[in-house]
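Now for a chain:

_____
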Amino acid sequence: MILAFIMSTYYIFYLLGWTDEKVLNPLRLPLLIAAFAGLLYAAFMYGANNSLMQAPAKFHSIYNSTFYGIYVYLGDIHIILRFLHVIFGAVMIASVTLLAISYFKKDADENFAAYSAAYLRPAFLAAFALQATTGLVMLFAQKPEIFSALTGASPAMTIVLWTGVTAAFVQAFFAHLKSPKIFKKWNLVSLVASSALTLILMAVVRDFIRDAEIGAAFSYMNNPYQWNFVVLGAFFVTLAAGAATVAYMLFGLKEKEIK
């Protein structure tokens, strides 16, 4: 269902982007709402499934409760917190990405770059404030042993967490710069680098919390597995074909000149 919603959402965006505005004028708002709802659904279900994965004691009974596998896990406050954390983080990463794209277009289209900076800056800062708030609430909502590990009991995880938090505030410093300062090379490099560092370190923290939650119930090392080379090979062939197609679309196609 997640894949179906994501694919439908992207096709809606393609339709809106490639169709004359007058043709779809009555349907633009409903289509945009549908696309937005599809993205929210995908984000929520990913968060809910990850939260359920961290509750192995509950998973077995849930699995047996529905033959069709249609179940929405709402039995954990972390689901809502994680959902909001993902949404606000997505806005931040999207803002940084669009700022980077605008940087490379600023010489050819100065107005576009200035416009991008004008609306991305407040969007990023608002998302950052909400992200920081939900992140702090999520920290205090952890189990006592995990909270302790993140606040000093485990030096490694404490360093990873608070280095990531520091990098996030570095992002906010550079993101608050107005145009044209934000489009100075090293300001933008610092913004992108701190964003990437934050993303990586917070993923490590998330992995630590996941292992702490399910480590006693499940261990990768203690469960036998076999490589399925047919499926793995098909995956890599498909991945290579997809990457080649995207590369061709980005660099091989020439935009038609409108005269």
Summary: The CA atoms of residues 62 and 68 lie 11 Å apart.
